[in-house]
Every structure is written in C-alpha cells, then in structure tokens.
Amino acid sequence: MKRIAIALLVLGLSACVSHNVYFPAAAVEKGADRIIADVWSLTDKAKEKK
Amino acid sequence: MKTFFARLLTLFLLSGALNAYAVSEREFNTPGINVVKARMQARHGQLQAYYNSGAVGLNLDGTIELRDEASVPLVFRRKLAALVDAENQDRETLYGEISNVYAHPEWRVEVREVFAKRWLKHAHRGWWIMSDRGWIQK
Question: How many separate domains does chain B show?
Fold first, then answer.
C-alpha cells in the first residue's frame, strides 16, 4: 500500500514538472498566430477594403 | 490507511487539473510582450507599403530583410533600413519574452522557429517570402 502511495506521489510530482520539460509547440503556435494577427491585421484590414 | 490513500488520490487529481489549467490558460499577455507588440503594430503602419512593394521580404528565420533597396527612393532608404533593424530587434525581444513566460529562456530558439513559420503562413498575397529556392512572391 505504502509503495503504491509513494509511486503515485512520484508520478504526480513528475506530471507537474513534465509541462515545463517539453517545448509546448502547439500553445506557442496559437499564441504566435494571435500576436501576428494583432500586429498585422489592424492596418491591413482597413487597406484591403479599399 | 485507506483514507490516506483516498486523500492522496484526490491531491493527485487536483494537481493534475491545476496543471492542465495553468497550461491552457497561459497567454502571452505580459507587460514585456505587450510593449514590444505595441511598437511592432505602430511600425507595421510604415513597413506595410514596403512589404507590398517587395522592397522588404520575410526571411525563413523569423526576421525581415531589405531585399530590393533599388526600388526605394534614395531619401527613404536610410529610414527604411532603420525600420527593418528595429523590427528585427523587436522580434528577437518578443521571442525572448515569450520564452520567459515559460521560464525557459533557452526556448527562444524554438519560439523563433515557430514564429518564422507562422509569419510566412500569414504573409499576405503579393508579399515576398524566402524559400529554399530563394525569394518568391506569395
């Protein structure tokens, strides 16, 4: 029982860390799209309509 | 012992849920990012015409480049070169700020790679982008 508890604890702690071990490519891509849209869209849209 | 196990399980599940929350809700909305973004937005008003004319093109590495200086009137050349430099510096700052969001400054490299692809993807029709065959018009 104690061993299972320890194993779970280790698993839980490692799960916390894992998010910061691998580069979150999908999240960064989503954020990048939003930033690019913000930087490029404002003036672009106004011009395209003309 | 059983209650201990149950409590531990609850804690485990809770921490998992919190982890998921922390990642999905993480947005690039820090003061550092917003300052750079505002500068880039303002600068885009000036750069846009040069993207359209092809004087400035988008590189494969997440930077921009003065690719056709001859098409720019002499009096504007120095100003445009400064704009391109400033834009590239701000982009580099932006990539660094985003890697700081994750407390992994070394991820700047990966962030730059992601942005490089997305800039090209979102580039407007008619803009010049770098490819493995050289400059092409999108």
Answer: 1
Classify residue A39 as exposed, middle or buried by CB count within 10 Å of its CB (0-12, 13-18, 19+): buried
Instruction: Give the 3-state secondary structure of residue B136.
Output: strand
Q: Which domain holds residue B71?
A: 4-137
- d(CA A31, CA B98) in angstroms, rounded, equals 9
Q: Is A44 an interface residue toward B (CB < 8 Å)?
A: yes
Reported ipTM: 0.82
The answer to whether residues B50 and B127 touch, using CB atoms and an 8 Å cutoff, is no
Q: Which of A9, A21, A40, A45 to mutate to test the interface with B (most CBs of B within 10 A)?
A: A40
Q: For tokens 């003061």, name the residue.
A: B31
The tens digit of pLDDT for each residue in A17-50 reads 545 689 999 999 999 999 999 999 754 454 454 4
What is the pTM assigned to this prediction? 0.76
| DSSP helix/strand/coil, B6 | helix
